[in-house]
Amino acid sequence: MLGGHGHRSGPHAGRGPAQLSLPQTIALGLENNLTTLLATERATEARALRQQVRSFLLPNLSGTAYQQNRTLNLVAQGLAPSGSQDMAAGGAGGGTGGGTVGGMAAAPTIPSFVGPFNTFDARLNFSQALLNLAAMREYKSSAAAVRVADLTAELAREQVATFVSLAYLTAQRGALEVRAARADLALAEALRQLAQKQRDVGVANGIDVVRAAARASQQRLRLVQAEANAEQNRLDLERAVGLPQGSVTVLTDTLAARAEALPTVEGALAPAQAARLDARIAEQTIEQRALDRRSRAAARYLVISAAGDYGQSAVTPFKDDRATRTYGVTLSVPVFDGGYTQGRVNAAASQQRQAELTLGNTRGQVEQDVRTALLGWRLAAEQVRAVDEQFDLANRELALATQRFRAGVADNLEVLQAQASLANARALQVQALAQYGAARLNFAAATGTAQSFRL
């Protein structure tokens, strides 16, 4: 089972709820556990990536404006001043103006340096993909990735619900062990008092008192150990659901066996295959990988896009300004990319086959989980019935042994043995109830219903 820890944990005790049921525990765990929080953020990230991909299919508008003051060296642009060679040969004209050569007007010369001069331009730019199959298919793939992320987030919620439910069961088991230890200590104290009373009246001897006192001392130690273990279990539960450590909270749902019919394997398998989120994730991943493969293959197709701009061109704003525009259509056809596209297609195809293999394995795992959970549930139910009978017999044995010791026809060895048998039966009873609750929880997890699990 995937675990996790609550992300909120206050430093002071006593700030948790006064009472806490199992449904409340699951709700707190889903709200505070780091695993669910991270999974939710990953789903949000997948939506953001889908939004980025969608932008390739939507119109793009942008505005630009600039004011420049420029100078140009025309010689650097490959434009030599006209007439320079004639002037060099004839020695007439010169400068930058016109002149006469051989009695005829010379052509105006082009200066080698121009400027400074002002230029202003402000316009709106537009572009739109008219046909881009690769982008369309990539968007579909990103939408499928969002569905996978959502299912993964829901799977995290199922896993956290299982984890915190198990922590709740463990805490309740610790409470039952404390209760059992206190009951055993009460019996040991009663026997010690009875042994002292029997000795006072001359029916028992000192060894009976010593035995009873040793038994009471052992039970006190067991109680201390049970209380420490129960406190640790409570701390683990509080950490799992994000409660302040050391909260004074009463757990209201207790471990108990139910008189209920166990589901059949055939009746549980079909709903489990439909509800188990890991199987649904595997199915959706196959679809997402197939769409990804198709989007990569579409990189071979032509792309048609439109672009244009419209704005004002002038020397300075509102001086000699004129409206200018550009528009056109671009067609792009990939010819050769060195095998890059084919490599990406092959990688996506391999990922799709991996997802198909994962789905087959996941379905087999679901069936095994259901069968194993039902087997454990059936065994736990039988154990509860067996230890209940053993507990009743141990009670009867203790009552008879106590009567014999009180009547003075036997020492307290029989009572001590009967108390040990009863303590063992009581411990087995707690263990059986805990295993029964855990078996029912395992079945809920195997069938994808951990969030609705109830004791």
Automatic annotation (TrEMBL):
Task: Identify the domain of life.
Answer: Bacteria
Would you indicate the residue range of the signal peptide? none
Major location (coarse):
membrane
Keywords, alphabetical:
Cell outer membrane, Coiled coil, Membrane, Transmembrane, Transmembrane beta strand, Transport
The GO terms describing molecular function are: efflux transmembrane transporter activity; porin activity
**Cellular component, GO annotation:** cell outer membrane; efflux pump complex
Keyword Transmembrane annotated: yes
Positions in coiled-coil regions: 178-234
As for subcellular location, the record says:
Cell outer membrane
Instruction: Give one Pfam hit by family name.
Output: OEP
SUPFAM superfamilies attached to this UniProt entry: Outer membrane efflux proteins (OEP)
- Entry annotated with the keyword Coiled coil: yes
Family to which the UniProt record says this protein belongs: Belongs to the outer membrane factor (OMF) (TC 1.B.17) family.
Put simply, this protein is called Transporter
Question: Which lineage is the organism of this entry classified under, starting from the top rank?
Answer: Bacteria, Pseudomonadati, Bacteroidota, Cytophagia, Cytophagales
